[in-house]
Amino acid sequence: MKIIYQRPESLTPATNTYCPGCGHGIIQKLIAEVIDELELRTKTIAIAPVGCAVLSYNYFNFDVTEAAHGRAPAVATAIKRLLPNRIVFTYQGDGDLAAIGTAEIIHAAARGENISVFFVNNAVYGMTKGQMAPTTIPGQKTTTTINGRIPEIHGYPLRICELLSSLDGVVYLERTTTSDISGILSTKKAIKKAFLQQMENKGMSFVEILATCPTNWKKNPLESMKWVKEVMEKYYPVKVYKNPSGTEK
Amino acid sequence: MKIKLLNGCEASAEGAISAGCKFYAGYPITPQNRYPEYMSERMEEIGGIFIQAESETSSINMVFGAAAAGFRSMTSSSSPGISLMQEGISYLSGCELPAVIVNMNRGGPGLGDVTPSQADYFQSTRGGGHGDYRTIVLAPWSCQEIHDYTYLAFDLADRYRNPTLVLGDGLIAQMYETVRIKPQKRRFAKKPWAINGCSGRKPNSLKSLFLTPGVLEAHNWKLASKFAKIEKREIRFEQYWCSDSSYILVSYGTCARIAKEAVQRAREEGIDIGLFRPITLWPFPYAQLREYIKNAKKILVVEMNLGQMIDDVKIAAANSSARIFFYGRPGGGIPDPDEIYREIKKK
Lengths: 249, 347
Prior knowledge:
The complex is a heterodimer.
Chain A: H1 23-37, E1 44-48, E2 63-66, H2 72-82, E3 87-93, H3 94-100, H4 102-110, E4 116-121, H5 151-154, H6 160-164, E5 170-177, H7 181-199, E6 204-210, H8 214-217, H9 221-235, E7 240-242
Parallel strand pairs in A: 1-2, 1-3, 3-4, 4-6, 5-6
Antiparallel strand pairs in A: 5-7
Helix pairs in contact in A: 1-7, 3-4
Chain B: E1 3-7, H1 8-18, E2 23-26, H2 34-46, E3 49-52, H3 56-68, E4 73-77, H4 79-94, E5 99-105, H5 121-125, E6 136-138, H6 143-160, E7 163-169, H7 170-174, E8 176-180, E9 205-206, H8 215-233, E10 237-240, E11 247-250, H9 253-268, E12 273-278, E13 280-282, H10 286-292, E14 298-303, H11 309-316, E15 323-328, H12 337-346
Parallel strand pairs in B: 2-3, 2-4, 4-5, 5-7, 6-7, 11-12, 11-14, 14-15
Antiparallel strand pairs in B: 1-8, 6-13, 10-12
Helix pairs in contact in B: 1-2, 1-6, 3-4, 9-12, 10-11
């Protein structure tokens, strides 16, 4: 008998509390699989955000600390500087990274901190039940934009990869999607590349991952995946924004 | 033993280094700019980490990360910057992480000015940020003391896994005095709770979020018993001529040093007065002050603010028949010994 599939060692057996169809479960499993494959579990330190993913310290089977809302890149900066041989990553949502934590992510990127950042963009505040996020798409209905986001009133969404691509401290920058199997597989590849970059000590590796939030979008899981593909991927192009020199795309 | 001529920022920084501090993050703000400047050189020399952060918010969260990883770490700032750090200090206390924060108190509110002040007493002694917590607060009055108490602050922070404040001011930050440097600390207690990679052990996690019913309350009761222990064990104060005086002046920090000169002069003129000086502002020496004011008729509280520590003096004097007076100079004002002497005579 041969084992062809099992829970990665980097995930605890805990049942996660994410909603059905939520992207976090998929993405955290991908991170755990990559950490197993690279044999990094006992060297890895994760910084959990404020938002739905704060509970990831119950699911990741390695050292995890929480951080105040948006401050994960500052926390990660200190840990990585003091423990340069460990693998340090932040896992942040769009409210955490692109609203309250913009100063922290931009300056950690500008300093070229040698950390990996996994930015989960689902265009809405999840844990607080569906308010407009900095990445909410024009026209998208949320509990604070009940008639849809109107840029003239609510401002325009932030495109984080495009924003960070001008910073020299970021060596690898890619936006991926989880709207289908091939998107999920390339997300896993990007996560792996981010960790490999960190092991090279070159600077920040950053992966933005487009993800679903069926509960707050008021869509079922299948409709949600379709919405990521048809709406989010149009506004947030899935591609490599910055590739480390000397590596293949 | 090394003796050096240092200002308050440098003296405090050397105290931190003697105590084994390996990480400093800070942001420029007057009157403590010498602190990050000095640390940028010294951290490189000792193989520690210095980071000039993009804000005080970021500084304190870097300190959070360093503390989480198990390193002795600190930041310094002045009042407006300390206000920005309150979120982080609350998280440090909630996650039970040790760290040292030096506040060179300046005049407020708002941007205020850059002169010495004690207007941050409430903020320092009542937790400062959200939630039910306290920070240990040490108030030095000389460059030697800020050196010694910064060193002590690291030991207290580690012992109780709680943030500890050193409360100086613009005066102590900028004046130069000779300082005897403490020998380098080399032995440290282990930190099995640190997040530094789970090799050979189960994973650690640090958190202040407890959503399961009852768990947060239990966590808060646990913090409460720790705070009670600190109140029992860590009170520090000084008193001069209080045992036989019917008139007690209460003051702390550099203001107490100014007041001491006035008290001495009054005594030379035959006034029956003593000086009581809390060194830990939290825990406040209530019982000790109560003892010294047992037979007092008058108490004069002198502060560089509109009257904040006086609340604690009133708590200590709850059963006393002594009349309590206040003399203070709010942000922008610094008393001199002459005016305090005049106040002593007036009351």
